[in-house]
Amino acid sequence: MEWKFRSDLPIYAQIVEQFRQSIVSGKLSPGQRLESVRDLSMEAGVNPNTMQRALQELEREGLVYTQRTAGRFVSEDAAVIERGKRAMAMEKIREFLSAMNSLGYSREEILSLLSEEKEEENNADS
Amino acid sequence: MEWKFRSDLPIYAQIVEQFRQSIVSGKLSPGQRLESVRDLSMEAGVNPNTMQRALQELEREGLVYTQRTAGRFVSEDAAVIERGKRAMAMEKIREFLSAMNSLGYSREEILSLLSEEKEEENNADS
Amino acid sequence: MEWKFRSDLPIYAQIVEQFRQSIVSGKLSPGQRLESVRDLSMEAGVNPNTMQRALQELEREGLVYTQRTAGRFVSEDAAVIERGKRAMAMEKIREFLSAMNSLGYSREEILSLLSEEKEEENNADS
Amino acid sequence: MEWKFRSDLPIYAQIVEQFRQSIVSGKLSPGQRLESVRDLSMEAGVNPNTMQRALQELEREGLVYTQRTAGRFVSEDAAVIERGKRAMAMEKIREFLSAMNSLGYSREEILSLLSEEKEEENNADS
DNA sequence: GTGGTCTAGACCACC
DNA sequence: GTGGTCTAGACCACA
Fold it and tell me: What φ, ψ does residue A47 adopt, rounded to 5°?
C-alpha cells in the first residue's frame, strides 16, 4: 500500500477509503489477516489512534471483523463486500458526473464522449 | 477561487488545472483580465515564481495571453478553449474508467451503473 | 561548449539555442547522455535553475528526454531532430534576409552577392 | 538609435558597427552632422573615450569626416559608402553561410531553402 | 504598476 | 548520485 495523504480530508477517512478500495477490489482477500494497528500506523506514518479510528469505521461498515486475540480480518461476507463495492462505484460516478457537469457537459454529451474513449482504446489495442 | 493544494501533484500543476477548469467552464470569461502575478501568488499563498510558472504554462497552451505591461488575459479564441475543454473531459473520463476498472467493473457494468445513477437523479428531481 | 552570454536574450534561451544547435548539427549524438544539471550549470556559470529551465524547454521540443534517475539524453528520433534543424535554418535565413534588407539589398542583389561569395570561395580553394 | 551592447565584442566595435549600418543603409544621410562625442557618449551610456575611439575608426574608413570646429559629418562620397555597404554585406553573407554550414547544409540546399522562404513570404503577402 | 529573468539555496522522490 | 519543485528576494524593461 502507498500512504500519501491529501490535506482536504481527515487522514483517518483517507485510510478508510484506501482499505475499502483494497477490500472491494479483492486486493485484500476475504478472511485475510490485517497487520497490527501498531505496525500499520508506523508504516503509514500516522498516530496509532488515527489508524485505530479508521479500522473501527471499517468494522462498523462490516468490511473487517475482530477476533479477540488473533487480530483483525477482512470480512468473508460476499454480500457486505458487494454492497461496499457498489457504494464506492456510485460515489465515483457521482464525482465523475459532477466534474463533467462543471465542465459544461450534458448527460448525452458525456455518453457520447465515453463512446469516443472506448474507440480510442480499441485503436490503441490494435 | 479556492486555493488548497494536494501533495500528490506539484503546486504549479494544480494551479494550472484550476485555471484551465475555470476558463473552459466559462467561470473566467474570454478577454477577462487576470489579477497580477503578485496578487494571485499572495492569495494562493505561494511564491510568485510558482504562480508565474503556472501562468506561463497556460500561455503555452494558448488559454491566456500576455500584454506587456497591462497584465494577462483569458484567450478569446473559442477553438483553443474548446480544445482545452475536450482535453480535460477526456482526462476525467480516463481517470473515471481507470478507477472503476480497479474496482473490478467492466465497460458494460459501468454503463449500466451510469443509467442507474441517472434514474436516481431523475427520481430526486421529481 | 563555450558559455558566453549576450545581454539581448535571456540566458536560458541562449542555452536552449546552443544545445539545439549542437543537437541538430550532430555535435551531440542521438542517445548521448548530457551532463547533470548541476555540472552543466557550474560549467556555464549560471544558476542550476536557469540550466534546468533551458533543458526543460529542450525536452518540450522533443530534442532531449529524461530518464528518472539516470539523467538526460539526446533524442533518438530523427524526424524530431530534422524538424528542429529546418526550424533553425529558416530562422537564420529570415535573420539574414532581414539584415540584408536593412542594408538596402533586394532579393535579386542578395542572390547575386551569394554567387560572388561562392566564386571567391572557389578561387580560395584552388 | 538603440544602444544595447553584447559582451562578446568590445563596445567601441559595436558602436562602429551600428554607425556603419546606419550610414550605408541611408538612415544617416550623406553630409548629415553627427551629435557631439559628449552627447553621443551620454546617450549610449559609455565613456566618452569609447565613443571617440569608435568615431575615429569610422573616420579611418572614410565613412565620416571632421571639420575642425563644426563637428563630424557623414561622408558624401558615394563610392566610399558603397564600398562600406558591400563590405558589410559580404560579412553578413559569410556569417550566414558559416552558420548554415555548421547546421550541416550544403550550398545547394541553402539556395533551395532560400527559395522556400521566398515562397512563404509571397504567401504571407497574399 | 506590469510581466520576465535570475540567483541562492532548500527539500523531495527515486535508485 | 539524478531530476524536479519551491521559496525568498533581487533586478530589469516597459509604459
Answer: -70, 140
